[in-house]
Task: structure prediction
Amino acid sequence: MKIIRKIEQMQEYIRKHRRAGKTIGLVPTMGALHEGHLSLIRRAARENDLVVVSIFVNPIQFGPNEDFKKYPRPFAKDVKLAVKAGADIIFNPGAGEMYPPGYQTYVEPGELTAGLCGAFRPAHFRGVVTVVIKLFNSVLADRAYFGQKDYQQAQVIKQMVKDLNLQMQIVVCPIIREKDGLAMSSRNQYLSPEERRSATCLHEALRVAKAMVSSGIKDAGKIKREIRNIIQSNLLAKVDYIEIVDAGSLEPVKQIKGQAAIALAVFIGKTRLIDNMVWG
Ligand code: AMP
Result:
């Protein structure tokens, strides 16, 4: 295992391994690793000769009132977990390495960011795609692994790879959940015990939505109302959005047909959680 903090050193290391014919998998993370992250690392380890896990809390994807400062950074523990799951290299650049003084270039994502989290977190996806392309250029991987947990993010990144002709494969992996259904997230640790119990309402609402669709209900408005009722019956929960969208374009649909995704963002107390489910 090796920890690399400089971009040039990372590129050099990868070039050496590419020359030796090795395939490279990259798992970008912000650390505070949990089983969701580890599932991506394990998959990358199965599919590549060398696995790089990046740990970087990216300042430019946080809004001014968001949790950048308090975001958990248990680096030593993360390294142990990542290595156990199959990481060969931890890429851990500092903010000054990624955005040195004079830095001025950003990647601007398009229509896919108009709704869902993009509508509530201005500049978030601009920050995400900018850091992701910088990580891609630092690590020069064959494949990069992302979670379906951040469904819009995965779609936006796939679109960027296509639009900018990047020579990499994006692998999107299933959502890993706690036993009671709560999607694993580094932010779950902000929840008090009472909030943690309430947080299961996101998955519960998605389960009800799935049952409605399976029973033949196609009216997106009706399903969204039902979901909202379930979540709002919870005193600690405040809905940011509940949306049913075309799974490819992310545009809202009135009727569910073909591939659709239901995505939601809910504040439990002060913690904003997201979850989703995809059909078809
Ligand atoms: P983050 O550290 O939150 O930026 O997440 C890094 C990667 O892990 C992203 O591609 C996420 O979508 C993915 N991820 C986070 N939580 C989960 C989860 N519960 N299941 C699967 N992937 C996840």
